[in-house]
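User: hey, got a sec? need Phospholipase folded
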Amino acid sequence: MEYIFRAGDTNAPTLILLHGTGGDEHDLLPLSELLNPKYNVLSIRGEVSENGMNRFFKRHGEGQYDLEDLKLRTDRLILFLKEAAERYGFDLTQAIPVGFSNGSNIAISMILHQDISFKAALLYAPLYPVDIANDKDLSDMKVLLSMGEHDPIVTKEDSMHVIDIFEKRGAEVTQVWVNSHELTQAGVEAGRELLKVMD
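Assistant: Yep! Here you go:
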């Protein structure tokens, strides 16, 4: 996998940066600086190319996920995170996925996976139109969901479904409603506040 690792302070948590469709491992580095410049950063490039645009998993169309590929890519990403934690000496139990759009969606798939657990996640413009069979307990997790009131890609109903995924499993959810499919100052500030609570 193509990625960037930047070491932070000793024993600092690690931000796992997951870009949106068409992005790469450089896209969310400025966001990590705004969230907490003292944290480690592991920024990963999606392995799938859709018409030349990087993604974390395949899809058949907008909001139509290739579920087989989603599972494969989720498994690969979790394995990569475990190997990276060993290679760079960071504590994976203190890692925090930070995703935008497609990156948020692969993050949700990881969060719901039984082989890895996170205490926090910052998810911007998430969409997860998937029937989920498991009822993994997320009661020790804090999640920021930044969603668009007028998002042309993610409907309000889709956003409520994402909220439901986390609340039904006991997660502590912070909602930030912005205008569209975007990263905003309000979303960044909410992310910083959540991370302060984790320190």
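Quick note: Residues 67-88 form the longest helix (22 residues). Let me know if you need anything else on Phospholipase.
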